[in-house]
Write a structure and sequence with these properties.
With 286 residues, the chain is of the alpha/beta class. Helix content is 40%, strand content 26%. It contains nine helices and 13 strands. Helix 1 packs across helix 3 and helix 1 crosses helix 4. The radius of gyration is 25 Å and the shape is globular.
Length: 286
Protein backbone atom coordinates (compact mmCIF):
# COMPACT_ATOMS: atom_id res chain seq x y z
CA UNK A 1 0.00 0.00 0.00
CA UNK A 2 1.16 3.51 -0.82
CA UNK A 3 1.35 5.63 2.33
CA UNK A 4 -0.01 8.58 0.36
CA UNK A 5 -3.10 6.54 -0.52
CA UNK A 6 -3.51 5.66 3.15
CA UNK A 7 -3.31 9.35 4.11
CA UNK A 8 -5.98 10.17 1.55
CA UNK A 9 -8.18 7.33 2.80
CA UNK A 10 -7.90 8.63 6.37
CA UNK A 11 -8.93 12.12 5.29
CA UNK A 12 -12.00 10.73 3.47
CA UNK A 13 -12.87 8.73 6.60
CA UNK A 14 -12.54 11.79 8.83
CA UNK A 15 -14.51 14.09 6.52
CA UNK A 16 -17.21 11.53 5.73
CA UNK A 17 -17.19 12.28 2.02
CA UNK A 18 -15.10 12.50 -1.13
CA UNK A 19 -15.89 16.12 -2.03
CA UNK A 20 -15.05 17.53 1.40
CA UNK A 21 -11.80 15.57 1.59
CA UNK A 22 -10.78 16.45 -1.97
CA UNK A 23 -11.02 20.19 -1.22
CA UNK A 24 -8.67 19.82 1.73
CA UNK A 25 -6.24 17.64 -0.23
CA UNK A 26 -6.27 19.98 -3.25
CA UNK A 27 -7.12 17.23 -5.73
CA UNK A 28 -10.21 16.51 -7.80
CA UNK A 29 -13.07 14.42 -6.44
CA UNK A 30 -12.66 12.04 -9.38
CA UNK A 31 -8.97 11.55 -8.63
CA UNK A 32 -9.67 10.89 -4.96
CA UNK A 33 -12.43 8.41 -5.85
CA UNK A 34 -9.98 6.50 -8.04
CA UNK A 35 -7.48 6.32 -5.16
CA UNK A 36 -10.11 4.86 -2.82
CA UNK A 37 -11.24 2.35 -5.47
CA UNK A 38 -7.63 1.35 -6.07
CA UNK A 39 -7.12 0.79 -2.34
CA UNK A 40 -10.28 -1.32 -2.13
CA UNK A 41 -9.17 -3.42 -5.09
CA UNK A 42 -5.73 -3.92 -3.56
CA UNK A 43 -7.20 -5.06 -0.25
CA UNK A 44 -10.14 -6.95 -1.81
CA UNK A 45 -12.60 -5.25 0.54
CA UNK A 46 -15.21 -2.49 0.50
CA UNK A 47 -14.09 0.41 2.67
CA UNK A 48 -17.13 2.66 2.29
CA UNK A 49 -20.80 2.17 1.53
CA UNK A 50 -21.95 4.72 -1.03
CA UNK A 51 -25.33 6.40 -0.69
CA UNK A 52 -27.06 9.66 -1.57
CA UNK A 53 -26.03 11.00 1.83
CA UNK A 54 -22.35 10.34 1.26
CA UNK A 55 -19.97 7.66 2.47
CA UNK A 56 -20.36 5.40 5.47
CA UNK A 57 -17.32 3.34 6.50
CA UNK A 58 -17.70 -0.42 6.59
CA UNK A 59 -16.31 -2.51 9.44
CA UNK A 60 -13.20 -3.09 7.30
CA UNK A 61 -12.90 0.64 6.66
CA UNK A 62 -13.10 1.44 10.37
CA UNK A 63 -10.53 -1.26 11.18
CA UNK A 64 -8.14 0.10 8.55
CA UNK A 65 -8.53 3.66 9.83
CA UNK A 66 -8.01 2.78 13.49
CA UNK A 67 -4.80 0.93 12.72
CA UNK A 68 -3.44 3.27 10.08
CA UNK A 69 -3.72 6.47 12.14
CA UNK A 70 -1.14 5.19 14.61
CA UNK A 71 1.06 3.99 11.74
CA UNK A 72 0.95 7.35 9.97
CA UNK A 73 1.74 9.23 13.18
CA UNK A 74 4.71 6.94 13.75
CA UNK A 75 5.92 7.51 10.16
CA UNK A 76 5.66 11.27 10.70
CA UNK A 77 7.78 10.95 13.85
CA UNK A 78 10.35 8.92 11.90
CA UNK A 79 10.49 11.52 9.12
CA UNK A 80 10.97 14.31 11.66
CA UNK A 81 13.64 12.28 13.44
CA UNK A 82 15.54 11.72 10.19
CA UNK A 83 15.42 15.43 9.39
CA UNK A 84 16.66 16.15 12.90
CA UNK A 85 19.64 13.82 12.40
CA UNK A 86 20.49 15.55 9.12
CA UNK A 87 20.44 18.94 10.87
CA UNK A 88 22.38 17.78 13.92
CA UNK A 89 24.62 20.53 15.35
CA UNK A 90 22.68 23.11 13.31
CA UNK A 91 19.49 23.40 15.37
CA UNK A 92 18.12 22.40 18.76
CA UNK A 93 14.50 21.61 19.49
CA UNK A 94 13.78 22.20 23.19
CA UNK A 95 10.67 21.02 25.02
CA UNK A 96 9.30 22.59 28.21
CA UNK A 97 6.74 21.00 30.50
CA UNK A 98 3.76 23.16 31.46
CA UNK A 99 4.78 25.48 34.30
CA UNK A 100 8.53 25.47 33.67
CA UNK A 101 8.49 28.79 31.81
CA UNK A 102 7.41 30.55 35.03
CA UNK A 103 10.87 30.06 36.55
CA UNK A 104 13.05 29.35 33.53
CA UNK A 105 16.14 31.60 33.10
CA UNK A 106 15.64 32.60 29.47
CA UNK A 107 18.74 34.86 29.52
CA UNK A 108 20.75 31.62 29.56
CA UNK A 109 19.21 30.65 26.21
CA UNK A 110 20.04 34.10 24.90
CA UNK A 111 23.61 33.55 26.09
CA UNK A 112 23.70 30.17 24.34
CA UNK A 113 22.47 31.78 21.11
CA UNK A 114 25.11 34.53 21.28
CA UNK A 115 27.88 32.00 21.86
CA UNK A 116 26.57 29.60 19.18
CA UNK A 117 25.04 31.72 16.38
CA UNK A 118 25.30 28.78 13.96
CA UNK A 119 22.75 26.79 16.02
CA UNK A 120 19.09 27.66 15.59
CA UNK A 121 16.96 27.28 18.73
CA UNK A 122 13.29 26.31 18.62
CA UNK A 123 11.11 25.47 21.59
CA UNK A 124 7.63 24.35 22.52
CA UNK A 125 5.52 23.81 25.66
CA UNK A 126 3.62 20.61 26.36
CA UNK A 127 2.64 18.10 29.06
CA UNK A 128 5.41 16.23 30.88
CA UNK A 129 4.75 12.87 29.21
CA UNK A 130 4.55 14.45 25.77
CA UNK A 131 7.97 16.10 26.20
CA UNK A 132 9.48 12.80 27.37
CA UNK A 133 7.94 10.84 24.48
CA UNK A 134 9.32 13.33 21.95
CA UNK A 135 12.77 13.13 23.54
CA UNK A 136 12.73 9.34 23.10
CA UNK A 137 11.43 9.64 19.51
CA UNK A 138 14.13 12.24 18.69
CA UNK A 139 11.60 14.91 17.66
CA UNK A 140 12.94 16.97 20.59
CA UNK A 141 16.63 17.21 21.44
CA UNK A 142 16.53 18.47 25.01
CA UNK A 143 13.70 18.85 27.50
CA UNK A 144 13.03 20.62 30.79
CA UNK A 145 10.56 18.46 32.66
CA UNK A 146 9.02 18.39 36.11
CA UNK A 147 9.42 15.66 38.71
CA UNK A 148 11.29 12.37 38.84
CA UNK A 149 12.42 10.73 35.60
CA UNK A 150 12.01 6.99 35.29
CA UNK A 151 12.62 6.31 31.61
CA UNK A 152 15.18 3.88 30.21
CA UNK A 153 17.70 5.48 27.89
CA UNK A 154 17.17 8.98 29.29
CA UNK A 155 19.82 11.16 30.91
CA UNK A 156 18.40 13.55 33.54
CA UNK A 157 19.91 16.10 35.91
CA UNK A 158 17.94 18.22 38.36
CA UNK A 159 18.40 21.97 37.85
CA UNK A 160 15.71 23.50 40.10
CA UNK A 161 13.60 22.60 43.13
CA UNK A 162 10.96 24.26 45.29
CA UNK A 163 8.14 23.22 47.60
CA UNK A 164 4.41 22.58 47.29
CA UNK A 165 2.20 24.88 49.36
CA UNK A 166 -1.28 24.85 50.85
CA UNK A 167 -3.39 28.01 50.65
CA UNK A 168 -5.78 28.38 53.57
CA UNK A 169 -8.42 31.11 53.76
CA UNK A 170 -8.91 33.28 56.83
CA UNK A 171 -11.37 31.77 59.28
CA UNK A 172 -10.53 28.17 58.45
CA UNK A 173 -9.48 26.05 61.48
CA UNK A 174 -6.08 25.43 59.85
CA UNK A 175 -5.43 29.11 59.05
CA UNK A 176 -3.11 29.83 62.00
CA UNK A 177 -0.82 26.82 61.53
CA UNK A 178 2.75 27.42 60.36
CA UNK A 179 2.80 24.38 58.07
CA UNK A 180 0.56 21.47 57.14
CA UNK A 181 0.92 17.77 56.47
CA UNK A 182 -0.69 16.08 53.50
CA UNK A 183 -2.65 14.06 56.06
CA UNK A 184 -4.27 17.28 57.38
CA UNK A 185 -6.13 17.59 54.06
CA UNK A 186 -7.93 14.24 54.25
CA UNK A 187 -11.45 15.67 54.68
CA UNK A 188 -10.88 19.07 53.04
CA UNK A 189 -12.34 20.28 49.72
CA UNK A 190 -9.33 21.20 47.57
CA UNK A 191 -8.52 23.53 44.66
CA UNK A 192 -5.72 22.45 42.28
CA UNK A 193 -4.31 22.77 38.82
CA UNK A 194 -5.67 20.14 36.45
CA UNK A 195 -4.27 16.92 34.99
CA UNK A 196 -2.06 18.74 32.46
CA UNK A 197 0.25 19.68 35.30
CA UNK A 198 2.71 17.40 37.06
CA UNK A 199 1.94 18.85 40.50
CA UNK A 200 -1.63 17.52 40.26
CA UNK A 201 -0.48 13.93 39.72
CA UNK A 202 2.28 14.27 42.30
CA UNK A 203 -0.12 15.60 44.93
CA UNK A 204 -2.83 13.00 44.27
CA UNK A 205 -0.22 10.23 44.45
CA UNK A 206 1.10 11.55 47.75
CA UNK A 207 -2.42 11.63 49.22
CA UNK A 208 -2.79 7.97 48.29
CA UNK A 209 0.45 7.31 50.17
CA UNK A 210 -1.37 8.67 53.23
CA UNK A 211 -4.30 6.34 52.60
CA UNK A 212 -6.92 8.60 51.06
CA UNK A 213 -8.15 9.99 47.74
CA UNK A 214 -8.21 13.80 47.87
CA UNK A 215 -11.58 15.55 47.62
CA UNK A 216 -10.80 17.94 44.76
CA UNK A 217 -13.57 20.46 44.30
CA UNK A 218 -11.98 22.51 41.53
CA UNK A 219 -9.38 21.76 38.84
CA UNK A 220 -8.15 24.62 36.68
CA UNK A 221 -5.39 25.63 34.25
CA UNK A 222 -5.00 29.06 35.89
CA UNK A 223 -3.18 29.32 39.22
CA UNK A 224 -4.76 32.70 39.93
CA UNK A 225 -8.20 31.06 40.00
CA UNK A 226 -7.00 28.85 42.86
CA UNK A 227 -6.29 31.98 44.92
CA UNK A 228 -9.55 33.63 43.92
CA UNK A 229 -11.73 30.69 44.90
CA UNK A 230 -9.69 30.14 48.05
CA UNK A 231 -10.50 33.72 49.11
CA UNK A 232 -14.15 32.88 48.39
CA UNK A 233 -13.78 29.98 50.86
CA UNK A 234 -14.50 27.22 48.35
CA UNK A 235 -11.63 25.11 49.65
CA UNK A 236 -7.92 24.88 50.42
CA UNK A 237 -5.68 25.61 47.44
CA UNK A 238 -2.67 23.54 46.39
CA UNK A 239 -0.02 25.44 44.46
CA UNK A 240 3.66 25.96 43.70
CA UNK A 241 4.85 29.52 44.36
CA UNK A 242 6.44 30.14 40.96
CA UNK A 243 4.33 33.02 39.66
CA UNK A 244 5.79 35.71 37.44
CA UNK A 245 3.26 38.30 38.61
CA UNK A 246 2.42 39.27 42.16
CA UNK A 247 -0.70 37.50 43.44
CA UNK A 248 -3.03 39.09 45.98
CA UNK A 249 -2.67 37.22 49.28
CA UNK A 250 -5.34 39.13 51.19
CA UNK A 251 -7.20 36.69 53.42
CA UNK A 252 -4.95 33.77 52.43
CA UNK A 253 -2.21 32.08 54.43
CA UNK A 254 0.31 30.27 52.22
CA UNK A 255 2.09 27.55 54.18
CA UNK A 256 4.50 24.76 53.33
CA UNK A 257 2.99 21.32 52.74
CA UNK A 258 5.90 19.69 54.51
CA UNK A 259 5.62 16.05 53.41
CA UNK A 260 4.48 16.65 49.84
CA UNK A 261 6.84 15.67 47.04
CA UNK A 262 9.02 18.65 46.02
CA UNK A 263 8.39 20.44 42.73
CA UNK A 264 11.57 20.08 40.69
CA UNK A 265 12.81 20.62 37.15
CA UNK A 266 15.29 18.37 35.37
CA UNK A 267 17.08 18.83 32.08
CA UNK A 268 16.78 15.65 29.99
CA UNK A 269 17.99 14.14 26.74
CA UNK A 270 18.56 10.70 25.30
CA UNK A 271 21.65 9.06 26.78
CA UNK A 272 22.99 8.27 23.32
CA UNK A 273 22.87 11.97 22.39
CA UNK A 274 24.75 13.47 25.35
CA UNK A 275 27.98 13.84 23.40
CA UNK A 276 26.47 15.50 20.33
CA UNK A 277 28.05 18.91 20.00
CA UNK A 278 24.95 21.12 20.31
CA UNK A 279 23.27 18.99 22.99
CA UNK A 280 26.48 18.81 25.04
CA UNK A 281 26.88 22.60 24.97
CA UNK A 282 23.35 23.13 26.24
CA UNK A 283 23.79 20.54 29.01
CA UNK A 284 26.99 22.28 30.10
CA UNK A 285 25.25 25.66 30.24
CA UNK A 286 22.65 24.36 32.70
Amino acid sequence: MDTKDIRYFCRVYEEGGINQAAKQLFITSQGLSRIICKLEAELHVTLFKRSARGLCPTASGTYLYENCRELLERLEDIEIGIRRIERMDKELQIGFSCGVWNVFPFPKLEQFQRENPQIQLQWEESENDSVMDKILKRTLDVGFVIGSIGRDGVYARQVYQTKLYALVYEGHPLYDKEQLSVGDLREEPLLTLNERFYCYHSFVGRCKDFGFVPMIRLKTMESQLIYRFCREKMGIGIDVNIHKQEICMDGIHRMELRDAAPWSISIVCRKDRREEKAVKKLLELF
